[in-house]
Amino acid sequence: MVRNPKLIAVLHNPIAIAESIQQRKRWEQFFILLGWFSLLVALLTLVVLVADLLIRGWPLLNLKFLLSPPSSDPEEAGILTAWVGSLLVILVTIVVAVPLGIGAGIYLEEYAPKNWLLDFIEINITNLAGVPSIIYGLLALGFFVYILKWGESILTAGCTLALLILPVVIVTTRESLRAIPVGIREGAYSVGASRWQTIFDHVLPYSMGGILTGIIVGISRAIGETAPLITIGALTFITFLPEAPIKGEFPYISFNWLWSPFTVLPIQMFNWVSRPQEAFQINSAAAGVVLLVLTLLVNSTAIYLRYRFRKSIKF
Amino acid sequence: MVKPTEEAVVTQQEPLRKLAEVRDLNFYYGRTQALKNINMPIYEKKVTALIGPSGCGKTTLLRCFNRMHDLYPGNRYEGQILLGVDQPRNLLEMDPIEVRMQIGMVFQKPNPFPKSIYENIAYGLRVRGIKDRALLDEVVERSLRNAALWDEVKDRLKEPGTSLSGGQQQRLCIARALATDPEIILFDEPTSALDPIATVSIENLIVELKEQVTILIVTHNLQQAIRVSQFTAFMYLGELVEYNDTMSIFTKPVEQKTADYVSGRFG
Ligand SMILES: Nc1ncnc2c1ncn2[C@@H]1O[C@H](COP(=O)(O)OP(=O)(O)O)[C@@H](O)[C@H]1O
Ligand SMILES: [Mg+2]
After folding, report:
1. Adjacent-strand bridge partners of B26
2. Residues A81-96: pLDDT tens digits?
3. Distance CA B160, CA B126 (A)
4. Which residues contact B255 (CB under 8 A, 6 or more apart)?
5. Among 3.40.50.300, 3.90.1640.10, 3.60.150.10, 3.30.70.20, what is the CATH number of B7-262?
6. Burial class (CB in 10 A: 0-12, 13-18, 19+), B22
7. CA–CA dist A214, A168 (Å, integer)
8. Chain A contacts of B173, Cβ < 8 Å?
9. Distance between A177 CA and the closest CA of chain B, angstroms
10. Which residue, A116, A151, A274, B67, is most buried by CB atoms nearer than 10 A?
11. Residue of B nearest to A113 (CA)
């Protein structure tokens, strides 16, 4: 079929073929090496960072450090108030962001009429996910602190971070819902299910793996956030714990902790790093290790959940 | 006296009754018209086959019957599909959920829910608020028996429906459709995703099922239409070219297009 002599020389000459294969294999080798190099750079940086934190923070990494409040004496100073603060703030974040985010995601994906308004909202939500976190801090300062007068409280902080991760939760919820095969939906409708039933009995449960992953990615981002919390006035030095949520007498549950001032792990770290005394650098490194472990824990939960749901649901 | 033929005996015992009737039906996907002025009856406890070349509108017509098109924006029906023997109602004006409670569907690709075999079948009753365990058990067993699947799955009702083979999944979907005791079951090329052996078992099942339920089946396999159906509608470019009993469509078609199609000259 090939008539052009130049083409014949390329396509049917064994030497040319061998050469061409050789040359392409060399390129392949080159790119494999390049890939390894990039991977190495990324991994080494991470390893060096973690090792550095571990080595410097090592003397303080014990239970006493975890259970002591901060103090002006670096030997005594611990992160009790910081990690309790982090956990409480994240708890509020979850309670606020998860129902709102999933609800908004369901509405936008399943109920909202598909028109220009929806497109507009969609673009804005995607953009919101990329807004610098300090902007959320300013918004929260104006709204939660000045207008609602919630003060520099755990509630304010939780809601601020909830706003921050809401776009991520909404977007992943929508993507997970969209990934459910159309046949499953039609199957549910075909036996007489309403839209509500189709969503809540099928679409939502089957997308839970993806949605949870989105939530956890959001949370692991929120745990490390510092700027918006400083903006709303988180204290950097706090030695007392908020009031316990469970009490000895009726009604046994108390929400006073929501109104407590607070600090969180990254702010505590920041506070220590910025001190002139060399000794506090160790505290900061140790707190960094704890923060890293916390984030890794959250992320492994995400990976585990994704794996579990993938395994149990196939279409 | 001449002995009546077998066919005649059947008609004598059970006179044909119109369970549904399509009248002047037009259907539009947005601005494109996919069905043009369709008129045809659906007889009770019979199998009616929809045949025609790919893209002629068979699936579109079938999905009008259970208002599947309502799920997507921009779709529009015109005309009537009357449902019911004594007091027919236009199902295009009924609540789609009410329609789907009376008209079940089996899809081209088996689509069991990623839930247990039991829950797959019970779901149609659960959405109606039925929680009585004994009743659900009874319906699950009866539906699986009717779908010729009971013996294969009776010891593994808790396993996911998606763990079954393709042919079993399709029979599970048939059982799911049977569970709610519909008037009509719609089949959209139910065997096109299956191997030949599974295909035979589904075809046999359809033949048996017509004793209990009216069936409307889309097929691109002419042999299948002959094997399972009593009536056949031949469609072309969104129009119903010819409707008759299956024997007549295949042996003495009136329209030239029908003759060409059933003799394999195009399609
Ligand atoms: N969702 C849709 N939107 C627009 N056009 C469609 C849609 N589904 C099918 N059609 C068109 O309608 C016609 C009939 O399609 P269909 O009913 O699926 O044919 P068949 O089942 O006979 O192969 C085809 O021309 C097809 O392209
Ligand atoms: Mg089709």
Report:
1. B78
2. 889 889 899 999 999 9
3. 18
4. B234, B241, B242
5. 3.40.50.300
6. buried
7. 7
8. 187
9. 15
10. B67
11. B73
Residues of chain A contacting B100 with CB distance shorter than 8 Å: 189-192
List the domain boundaries for chain B: 7-262
Looking at per-residue confidence, does B13 or B88 come out higher?
Answer: B88
Q: What is the pLDDT of residues A241-278, one digit of tens each?
A: 887 777 777 777 777 788 888 888 899 888 888 888 88
What mean pLDDT do residues B122-149 have? 95
Across the range A120-144, mean pLDDT stands at: 91
- Partner A contacted by B29 (CB < 8 A): no
Question: Looking at ligand 1, which atom is closest to the CA of residue B72?
Answer: 1
Higher pLDDT, B15 or B150: B150
Please indicate whether, in this complex, the C-beta atoms of B71 and A186 are within 8 angstroms of each other: yes
In this prediction the pTM is 0.84
User: 3-state DSSP call for residue B259?
Assistant: helix
Which pLDDT belongs to residue A246? 75
What's the pLDDT at B13?
61
Distances (CA, A) of A49 to A60, A221, A265: 18, 18, 18
DSSP state of B3: P
Q: Is the pLDDT of residue B91 over 90?
A: yes
Q: Which residue has the tokens 């469509």?
A: B249
Residues A96 and B147: their CA atoms lie apart, in Å, by 47
Task: Count A/B contacts: CB-CB distance under 8 Å.
Answer: 67
The alpha carbon of B34 and the centre of ligand 1 are apart by a number of angstroms equal to 7
**Of the ranges A210-219, A245-254, A262-271, B112-121, which one carries the lowest mean pLDDT score?**
A245-254
Atom number in ligand 1 closest to CA B189: 21
Each as own residue / partner, the long-range contacts of residues A55-64 (CB below 8 Å, 24 or more positions apart, any chain) are A56/A281, A56/A282, A56/A285, A56/A286, A57/A282, A57/A283, A57/A284, A57/A285, A57/A286, A57/A287, A57/A288, A57/A289, A58/A286, A59/A282, A59/A286, A60/A282, A60/A283, A60/A285, A60/A286, A61/A286, A61/A289
- 């006296």: which residue's tokens? B1
